[in-house]
Amino acid sequence: xxxxxxxxxxxxxxxxxxxxxxxxxxxxxxxxxxxxxxxxxxxxxxxxxxxxxxxxxxxxxxxxxxxxxxxxxxxxxxxxxxxxxxxxxxxxxxxxxxxxxxxxxxxxxxxxxxxxxxxxxxxxxxxxxxxxxxxxxxxxxxxxxxxxxxxxxxxxxxxxxxxxxxxxxxxxxxxxxxxxxxxxxxxxxxxxxxxxxxxxxxxxxxxxxxxxxxxxxxxxxxxxxxxxxxxxxxxxxxxxxxxxxxxxxxxxxxxxxxxxxxxxxxxxxxxxxxxxxxxxxxxxxxxxxxxxxxxxxxxxxxxxxxxxxxx
Amino acid sequence: xxxxxxxxxxxxxxxxxxxxxxxxxxxxxxxxxxxxxxxxxxxxxxxxxxxxxxxxxxxxxxxxxxxxxxxxxxxxxxxxxxxxxxxxxxxxxxxxxxxxxxxxxxxxxxxxxxxxxxxxxxxxxxxxxxxxxxxxxxxxxxxxxxxxxxxxxxxxxxxxxxxxxxxxxxxxxxxxxxxxxxxxxxxxxxxxxxxxxxxxxxxxxxxxxxxxxxxxxxxxxxxxxxxxxxxxxxxxxxxxxxxxxxxxxxxxxxxxxxxxxxxxxxxxxxxxxxxxxxx
Lengths: 311, 279
What we know:
The complex is a heterodimer. Chain A is mainly alpha-helical. Chain A has helices at residues 10-44, 61-66, 71-106, 111-119, 126-137, 142-150, 166-178, 180-192, 195-203, 208-219, 221-236, 240-246, 259-268, 279-306, and strands spanning 47-50, 53-57. Chain A has two domains: 10-64, no CATH class; 71-306, MetI-like (MetI-like fold, Orthogonal Bundle). Chain A contains 14 helices and two strands. A two-stranded antiparallel ribbon of chain A has the order 1-2. In chain A, β1 (47-50) and β2 (53-57) form a beta hairpin. Chain A is globular, with a radius of gyration of 25 Å. Chain B folds into two domains: 20-56, no CATH class; 68-275, MetI-like (MetI-like fold, Orthogonal Bundle). Helix content of chain B is 76%, strand content 0%. Chain B is built from 13 helices and no strands. The mean pLDDT of chain B is 87. The chains are: A mainly alpha, B mainly alpha. At the A-B interface, α1, α3, α4, α5 and α6 of A face α1, α4, α5, α6 and α7 of B.
């Protein structure tokens, strides 16, 4: 695109000046409130902090402190929960979403309406979704009475306070919230596949399940790629649902703690009984998370790039 | 109807059942939310699924006045409106020369903006907090407007530039020969021709800003400046036994998004299918 011209005419110079003036406001706001804080957070992770005040350079000390007690238990727990969250959403939300999308794709009527219904929770604030499900799932709530009347449960419903189940409940609520996203992306992807491909397979006697698995899926790699990447970024940034439904400590007993809730406690002082901030530790965790997100995102995109079917 | 049609219908039945089941899973919680708003708290405890025996608007009245939802709504509207306008104006200004001038330096600048779509800005919240404190933008709606715009600019520039790039050159050349200024060409000629893109950017920015509570959580301490989602997080703890009022507060706060969704469902569906970007 960029070709170097031998000599810039006077009009040329004016064009560059007016272009720069147009780009400047957006660039300034973006640099000041996104790039600068991010860059100084990365840089600051190499320093010792006393409260919100930066002290001397300490190299990788903050990072080393993350991986020893008392931080290690929290860090490894939160990381494991994020990994479960990612896998859970991939299966529960994106897997089911693919099936729903395919069923919608096979039908001519009702598609737009059902897509709109499925997507509606995604435009709600996670605060509303979290608060709503917290009310529905409390002991004596609507889910409990439903399970009682179906005879599936006796006594109180306590899954939100149960450390083996709490995380999976949050993952299910998250899938409920965002199910519309894979449905929309997959239906858009399915519609881009040439109809002849499906017809040929159908004439060969392939059933719907087989067509989905061996014909549609390989051609859906671009959709799968963007969904996997989005899911990875979103699940490893998970904070809102945990905060609203289980509090910033990731109750019960840190069973739903995530990397960002842990970061938040370190940065804004809700870690430990006395609530002291540890900015150095927070910035080190932020830096690691930033690197993890960047490296894995690029890796995922490369991985799927190589598997994209082209014609 | 022929036999073939009937056979076809029957084969499609299991699929319809699956789809209907998920529609129920989505609709029932929302139904419970809506009917509970009109029930007394005692009735909510008694009967979760039925319609209210005595329809009451007390919950809304309480949430609106006692819990001061009117103020939070105003704050949310001001922040959302401000962020949408600022994002649209500066992003359109940036996207215009970057996509339509022969500059030689537009690709790297666009790439620099695009990188921001994925940057995990929450991880920079400590330094952002310090910056806001220095700029005296804590406890300020304007501060939130700046932060939200900064976060949404990358997506907006990306979408607008993509739409602007494919417009024919003749579109602005006649106006330019007539001596029209560049900003006039942008706002009077280019933007009206790419209304769908402007709509996508406006809708997605509005939804993302309206729903967010992370930045109010760290930047807003004064009750006067709280936005709706932040108010709700404190609210649930405070009035946790008054279910009727909590449900009503949730219903009030989702109302603007619901109205927007009913009006613009098609644009939102197509926008998400095409760009995948809402979060």
